[in-house]
Every structure is written in C-alpha cells, then in structure tokens.
Specification:
By secondary structure, the protein is an all-beta fold. It has strands at about 10, 20-25, 30-35, 40-45, 45-50, 55-60, 60-65, 70-75, 80, 85-95, 95-100, 100, 105-110, 130. Helix content is about 0%, strand content about 40%. Strands 1, 2, 4, 5, 6, 8, 10, 11 and 14 form a 9-stranded mixed β-sheet that branches. The protein has a 3-stranded antiparallel β-sheet with strand order 3-9-7, with no helix packed on it. This is M23 family metallopeptidase.
C-alpha cells in the first residue's frame, strides 16, 4: 500500500466518533495517487472512489480528476491533483467507514484488547511525518 501523496504529512488522524478518514497536508496541484490497485467506481465533483477487494478508497477534494468510472488503476497511478490545503483519504467496507491502513508501519490499525499485544510493522518510510 502506498501513501496517496509524496512525502506524506498527516494533519488529522482517523477518529471513529469525529473524523472518518485521514487528512494529508497538500498544496493545490499536489499529485494524488491510488493507494492500492483497483477499479474506479465513482468520479463526481471533487471525489474519486477506487474499489479494491470490496474496500472503497475515497479521495477528496480533487481538482480535475484524471480517471474515469470503470477504469482499472494500479498502485501509485495518478488520480488527479489536490484542490486545496489537505487531501481527505478514507476507507469504507460494506458502506461502513473503517480505520485506515497505517501507512507509516504498513500494518492495519486495530484495537488491542487488554492483556494482548500488537506487532509493529516496518519502520516509517523516509520523509513520512505525523503531526497531531
């Protein structure tokens, strides 16, 4: 899985109660790329949705999407450019908002029950930073 923007800086994290996705710092015109290969299932206004294995990946706001519904895209393929100061990225499965892939450890974020432990993934890629 790839980050949707080069040198990702997360400016707002997923919060099930308050924020259904992850926001990345961008400037207007920043190239936005597919996080995983899939099929473009929706392009409207400033929104592009790519479906991969029954998970929808939402990207917004985009200015001038470069893909069309029904197209197959590969990981890292350009979807369009950011329209503003941030890109909102979100995943949905069965229409329900899901926690995002943790792009900085290459592992799915999950809740760990008391007494259990989670195994960390790979180290952060060069240039990746997270800001609270």
């Amino acid at each position: 899985m790839a980050a949707p923007v080069h040198n990702p800086t997360v400016v707002r994290e997923y919060d099930a109660a308050a924020h259904p996705g992850r926001d990345y710092r961008t400037t207007p015109g920043t190239t936005v790329r597919a996080t995983l290969a899939g099929v473009v299932v929706q392009v409207r206004d400033e929104l592009v949705v790519v479906e991969t294995n029954a998970i929808q990946h939402l990207y917004r706001p985009l200015s001038g999407p470069t893909v069309r519904e029904g197209e197959t895209v590969e990981t890292g393929e350009v979807l369009g450019v950011a329209a503003g100061a941030h890109l909102h990225y979100e995943e949905r499965g069965d229409g329900v908002r899901k926690p995002q892939f943790d792009l900085h450890t290459n592992a799915r974020m999950r809740v760990v029950a008391p007494g259990e432990s989670a195994v960390e993934g790979a180290a952060e890629p060069p240039g990746a930073t997270v800001h609270p």
